[in-house]
Amino acid sequence: MSENAPNIEEEAENFLAERVESSLVSALSLGLGALITIIAITWAIDFWLNLGFTWFDEQAMVACLGLSLAVVFIRYPAKLGTERHAIPWYDYALALLGMGGTVYFVLIFDSIAENPFAMRPKAFVIGLLLVPMVWEALRRTAGWSLTIVFSVFVAYGFVGHLMPGMLQGVEQKNIDLIAFLGTSEVALIGLPLKIIVLTVVLFIWMGQMLLHTGASEWFTDLSAAMMGRSRGGSAKIAVVASSLFGSISGSAVSNVASTGVITIPLMRKSGYDAKTAGAIEAVASTGGQIMPPIMGAAAFLMAELLELAYTEIILAALIPSLLYYLAVFVQADLEAAKKGIAALPKERIPPMMRVMKEGWFFVVPYVVLIYTLFWMNMAPQQAAFWAAVSVGVVSIIFGYKKLRITPKQFIATFSGCGRMSVDIIIIGAMAGVIIGILDKTGLGQALTLILAAIGENNLWLLLILTAIISILLGMGMPTSAIYLLLATMIAPSLIKLGVNPISAHLFVLYFGLMSMITPPVAIAAFAAASLAGAKPMETGMTAVRLGWIAYIIPFVFVLSPNLLMQGEAVQVLTALVLACIGVWIASCGFIGYLFRPIGAAFRLLFVAAGLALLVPGDAFTYGVAINVTGGILAFLLIGREYMARRNGAVASPIQS
User: Fold this and answer.
1) What ranges in 288-360 are assigned the alpha helix state H?
2) How many other CB atoms are found less than 10 A from the CB of residue 495?
3) Is 416 within 8 Å of 458 (Cβ atoms)?
4) Which of 105, 186, 390, 637 has its CA 20 to 30 A from that of 194?
5) Total count of domains within the chain
6) Among the listed residues 168, 167, 254, the one whose alpha carbon sits nearest the alpha carbon of residue 210
7) Does residue 597 belong to any structural domain of this protein?
8) In the 8-state DSSP scheme, what is residue 619?
9) Alpha-carbon 514 to chain mean position
10) In terms of pTM, does the model score above 0.85?
11) If you average pLDDT over every residue of the chain, what do you get?
């Protein structure tokens, strides 16, 4: 016993040491994260300007980048896939180096901006420090796939002049290129980082305020009160709740985690199998990122990049997002009918009056956001600030289920927001460097020429290749990061080839988001599968089937922007009506049920009829004829199923 005692004591000491180190990791990352949020908020409301300080936006961006680098090196171990319990000396050194380098950059930024030639040696040192640190931070947070993409672009900056043919770039001096990439306002501290620090962080903070005041629970209760009495009510609750909360969460995975813990068990108890329950939640959560008015902050990014009014973006995105949720909703309903899944038990449906009484005030932040944006014409970050403040005010005054936000929870919103922002800030810096390389070397023009050569005689081939690339590049990233990367690398080429600018940006956003539910790296579907106890790949494939419309509708609005509300009112309305009918008909085919189970052959006909109705009539020579054919076929199929049901017929075993 005495021989073992020292070992036990040593193990206990090691355990306590790990606990202390783990607490230190958490405390440092949360504290530094809170500083990121505070900097973003004070810049959004012009706090320092009102005090008489004339600091540049770029200085705030660099400060937030330095804090983000420090958080990454403190929180994420060098070896991917491992947990951090202790901070090694070299990560302390990297964290201090990152913060120290950015502090120095902040102090001399005005000198670099005024006289970049004279300050080039110092700019070179800053670039030599920050670009590799961003590379390592990207590797630790986003993994190897995105880091390899980043590496290829950086390498091209140095050796692009040696490439053959159309890919040959302009030769760069190494010292000048490093200085440019690390300090230029069109590179590392360019538009992507600016939008993230000065706009996106504010919306993440708003989401944190809603999360800490119980809004996600209220959205779920509201959905239950609205949908619980219909067949498959549990799935419809998931669809509505995830669409409401997903728009502000900024991440499909976090939306799955926050609403899925409630909705997935509810669906399982109602009769949905594990893979279907997980897939419905994953698809509904992913769709929240394309649902106006916030779209996971992508709407504001798009407005800045396209230099358009925010209202134009959300109006354009409205119809496609409604069609997306219509498809999910219809399929959830038909799946319930097919499997005989009834409504929720009455005791599990909260009364609507009680739900509204408990949390009606959560509508106020949305009203504040829309009012400040549309009527007061505030900048998006200022509108997000006042909307977030209104969340705290209504929570203090009313309280959700008699619980009001506490000072501790309020402080937690700062730290939580900052820590959630770190990954996307690093990706924003990466996107800036890529933009700088595209601009400096002429690679951007070369990529456009290559895509033009591919799509010169076949726009479909170009769009299909773009869709595949967008899905591959979007794997594993949050919404804003996916959009920034794709808007930087791919959308400009589509626009130069004649695609409508809003159509091009929404196209890459949709397919980038589809990486969340498309195997093999369908992280939203895999997260939902974990909660449902289902096999990940089966859940991912089911999610692809349920989200089929998102793979089709981007092609439709690229070929004809009527569904983006760009056109005559009659054309827009006609396209909307035909698309709604087409979504319903095709969904019947994908599920295999209308009034009764549908046989395999007729399922294909339903899908064909639905897709024919989705074809934009003005985009093809025989587009209208295709619509008419689809309408007639749909009418005949519906009539056949209705009459068969009246006569009591069922699908034959061969058909099924």
Assistant:
1) 298-306, 310-339, 352-359
2) 17
3) no
4) 390
5) 1
6) 254
7) yes
8) T
9) 10
10) no
11) 82
Question: Longest Cα pair distance anywhere in the chain, in angstroms?
Answer: 91
Distances (CA, A) of 55 to 103, 107, 380: 14, 10, 20
Q: How many residues does the chain have?
A: 656
Tens-digit pLDDT profile for residues 196-218: 888 878 888 887 888 888 877 78
SS (H, E, C) 215-248: HHHHHHHHHHHHHCCCCCHHHHHHHHHHHHHHHH
Answer yes or no: is 85 within a domain.
Answer: no
Whether 491 and 505 have beta carbons less than 8 Å apart is answered as: yes
The residues, ordered by sequence, that sit 6+ positions from 524 with a Cβ below 8 Å of its Cβ are: 252, 253, 255, 256, 282, 285, 286, 516, 517, 543
Rounded Cα–Cα distance for residues 60 and 40 (Å): 8
Q: Report the C-alpha gap between 259 and 281 in whole angstroms.
A: 8
Q: Please, what's the b/e burial string for 148-161 (b: 16 or more CB within 10 A of its CB; e: otherwise)?
A: ebbeebbebbbebe
Do residues 239 and 332 touch, judged by C-beta distance below 8 A?
yes
| Residue 470 amino acid letter | S
| Structural domain range at position 597 | 581-656
Q: φ, ψ for residue 551 (rounded to 5)?
A: -90, -15
Residue 594 maps to a domain: yes
| Rounded Cα–Cα distance for residues 90 and 451 (Å) | 44
The answer to whether residue 13 is domain-embedded is no
Instruction: Name the residue with tokens 């947070």.
Output: 141
Q: What is the pLDDT of residues 150-180, one digit of tens each?
A: 899 899 999 988 888 778 888 888 899 999 9
